[in-house]
Specification:
The chain is an alpha/beta fold. It is about 35% helix and about 15% strand. Strand 7 (about 135-140), helix 5 and strand 8 form a beta-alpha-beta unit.
Length: about 725
């Protein structure tokens, strides 16, 4: 590997180069090209004292000073400073951006030497002391959907990116036929039924070989990504700000630096998912860069509105105006019977295999808050069961028994506990092959679930949006469902408020822990992406993907995941933002119940006005520190997008205190913050409101009106609204 020129020699060359060949400006600063003026200006604007002489250049310029940047990464740089003279060279603009920010934070013009991005981030990787370059990756067969081959190639690629070793990959047959293949092996092996479909086991043997055992579908690919993350130091997370559209999932990657990683028997482990089915509702439509696999997202079955797929032709339902079928009508029930068997036969004919990629069907009610049948027969069942859900449980039981009678007893029938059906029946219990998906969304009084507090309702009051009643009904379903036959629709999203985020991230750990302790085996996470990182939506998605696979042992460990996300997303600027988040979340638990669904409340309910106003300057100071510590201009952009959300809520809450009724000093401060907010939302084209289906958005007005609180931007009568902007 080529080496960077030594700091001592560089110092001598700096002195010589400046005395021999630089053309000095009036301020004694010179750049190698006009294209780098932006970096000179950054130094001028942020250093208390500029070095006497500065040269900023690219890889070609560096070579003229004897500095070889061949092994420097694209975001890497070389900085050398001595006796007031400074050299900065970057492989790309990204490297120069990092370099000048690094020098402002940590450098000095008299004696500073820094090389970033030289060589591989993992200097040495071994298995039981054996160099990784001695190994081949051997996979058992191509496996389900080609995932075994993918697992092998991904493992090889990411090991090469980490340390430079290019491991050959073989199928088991090709390895047996190969001449003189590497003797040391990393084997990828399916172990079914021990590991079912998705669990995995990693073993480093006494012979120095490693085996990743996996379930028959995604076990090995999950095991490989887990090995890369937990033991090699890779991290994979969502690049929300650089998506081409809200449904395209870009992937961000980060690798921690290490001098030596030795993979020994200490890493041996077996992991199985907390929930067997883990859907992220805005991701199922597609995948980019294997993001879904890297995040262990797996929609094994979908608890939806299956009754709307039934062909009711020739029944009385055709002439009814209601949008729910009459489930006491034998003719309609026979159509459901026909649909059930036909659905199964079509799936099997298409090549699907029960228990592998086919688990059952949904007979959930139509979506909507009205249209239930109120005929005498249906009302008699409702009275007997003391809930409309009795009709749906009886219908599901009939279909489930039909499956058993036809040899399909391993398939389940899924129904919804949703809206008017979220109260469990008192007489009829679901059969063991009936799954019930409880929706923590809207209750029977058509009020939304509380987003301020946890699902168990322990911190809620007794108002309409209290989670206490929902939790009681959920536990009622747990009592009558077969073990592992309860699913949950979970909605921690900011529908409407795309700029100011509701403080609900701390709830996630407690909610998932609560659900996992009460018979839940599948979760549908509905996290509408919105349009900006200000929502913390990417953080919510990241955490749910992590903890729905494996719940941290403690809340403190969960907070560690949050803190790491701030570092991954904002670099050194993440630390003050994590401090901001902790306080913001703490204040968010000191309010009454509220719901965010469909912009049902203004974002000013998230934090008490006095609490937000009294901490506004403190929060602004944290964001100023975050911008100062940021490693790149891209991180600054992310910080400013988050800052806009903080300022929006802060200015809204402080407006009456400071602008309308405050002192002259307070009014001046409010104006300063208002102008900063106005600048940020226009600079980053941030909507204040975004519809739940991303079909329209509302923005700040083109002209600033200080005599109007920015809360008015959120309303329909003020600001701009673009239809179809995001769809």
């Amino acid at each position: 590997m080529k080496k960077i020129i030594s700091a001592v020699l560089a110092s001598v060359m700096i002195m010589a180069s400046f005395s021999a060949c630089t053309v000095k400006e009036d301020n004694n600063v010179v750049s190698s090209s006009g294209e780098n003026e932006i970096y000179l200006n950054y130094l001028r604007d942020n250093l208390t004292q500029m070095p006497r002489d500065v040269i900023i250049g690219d890889e070609a310029e560096a070579s003229s000073y004897g500095i070889d940047m061949t092994d420097i990464s694209d975001d890497g740089f070389v900085t050398r400073a001595t006796e007031g003279k400074l050299l900065i060279f970057g492989k790309t603009d990204e490297g120069l951006d990092r370099a000048v920010r690094d020098f402002v934070k940590y450098g000095n013009a008299d004696n500073y030497s820094k090389t970033y991005g030289e060589g591989y981030r993992v200097k040495r990787l071994t298995i039981a002391g054996n160099d990784i370059s001695e190994y081949a990756i051997v996979y058992e067969n191509d496996g389900y959907n080609g995932y075994m081959h993918l697992a092998a190639t991904e493992l090889s690629d990411y090991i090469e990116k980490a340390c430079g070793a290019a491991l050959p990959t073989y199928s088991a047959g090709d390895y047996a036929r190969a001449k003189n293949p590497p003797e040391r092996r990393i084997d990828l092996v399916v172990d079914y039924p021990t590991l079912n479909n998705e669990a995995f086991r990693i073993e480093v043997g006494a012979d120095g070989n490693m085996t990743v055992f996996g379930g028959r579908t995604r076990g090995c690919i999950y095991g490989v990504y887990d090995l890369l993350e937990e033991n090699v130091g890779w991290r994979f997370f969502d690049d929300v700000l650089n998506r081409e559209n809200p449904h395209d999932k870009g992937i961000m990657e980060y690798l921690y630096e290490a001098e030596h990683i030795d993979l020994t028997a200490e890493i041996n482990r077996t992991e199985e998912p907390l929930f067997d089915s883990r859907r992220m509702d805005d991701l199922y439509e597609g995948d980019t860069d294997n993001f879904v696999l890297k995040e262990k997202i797996s929609e094994n079955w979908y608890s939806g509105h299956g009754l709307n797929q039934v062909d009711y032709t020739g029944t009385s339902f055709e002439s009814k105006k209601a949008n729910q079928p009459c489930l006491s009508d034998e003719e309609i029930l026979e159509r459901i019977d026909e649909h059930t068997l036909a659905y199964v036969e079509r799936a099997l004919a298409s090549g699907q295999e029960i228990g592998l990629d086919f688990f059952g069907l949904s007979l959930g009610q139509y979506d909507g808050t009205e249209g239930y049948c109120y005929c005498i027969d249906c009302m008699d069942v409702i009275a007997e069961e003391r809930s409309p859900s009795g009709l749906y449980v009886r219908t599901a039981n009939r279909a489930a028994q039909l499956l058993k009678d036809n040899g399909y007893g391993d398939l389940h029938v899924n129904i919804l506990a949703y809206l008017d059906t979220n109260i469990p029946p008192t007489k009829t219990k679901p059969l063991d092959n009936v799954r019930v998906a409880f929706c923590f969304y809207i209750n029977d009084s058509h009020t939304f679930t509380c987003n301020a507090h946890t699902l168990d309702g322990k911190d809620c009051g007794n108002g309409a949006s209290s989670n206490k009643r929902q939790a009681e009904r959920f536990l009622g379903w747990e009592a009558i469902c077969a073990p592992g036959a309860l699913d949950v629709w979970y909605y921690p999203f900011h529908a409407g408020a795309s700029l100011a985020a509701a403080p609900m991230v701390q709830n996630l750990y407690h909610d998932i822990k609560f659900l996992s302790e009460h018979n839940v085996n599948a979760i549908i996470n509905t996290v509408v992406p919105g349009t900006g990182e200000s929502q913390f939506q990417t953080l919510i998605e990241y955490l749910l993907n992590e903890i729905c696979w494996e719940l941290p042992e403690s809340y403190e460990e969960y907070l560690g995941l949050v803190e790491e996300w701030f570092y991954l997303t904002y670099g050194d600027g993440g630390a003050p933002l994590y401090e901001y988040w902790l306080e913001y979340e703490r204040l968010g638990k000191q309010v009454d119940c509220y719901a965010v669904f469909y912009a049902s409340t203004l974002p000013t309910v998230y934090i008490n006005a006095y609490d937000m106003t009294s901490r506004l300057d403190y929060f602004c100071g944290l964001f100023e520190e975050a911008r100062r510590l940021a490693d790149t201009s891209e991180q600054v952009r992310r910080i400013e997008i988050l800052e806009a959300g903080m300022l929006y809520l802060g200015v809204c809450q402080a407006y009456d205190y400071w602008y309308v009724n405050g002192t002259a000093e307070e009014k001046a401060r409010l104006i300063e913050l208002y102008e900063r907010l106005f600048y940020l939302v226009h600079e980053h084209h941030q909507p204040v409101y975004c519809s739940i289906f991303l079909t329209s958005a509302r923005y700040a007005p083109e002209k600033l009106n200080l005599d109007e609180s920015p809360i008015m931007w959120y309303t329909r009568t003020s600001g701009d609204e673009d239809q179809g902007l995001l769809g």
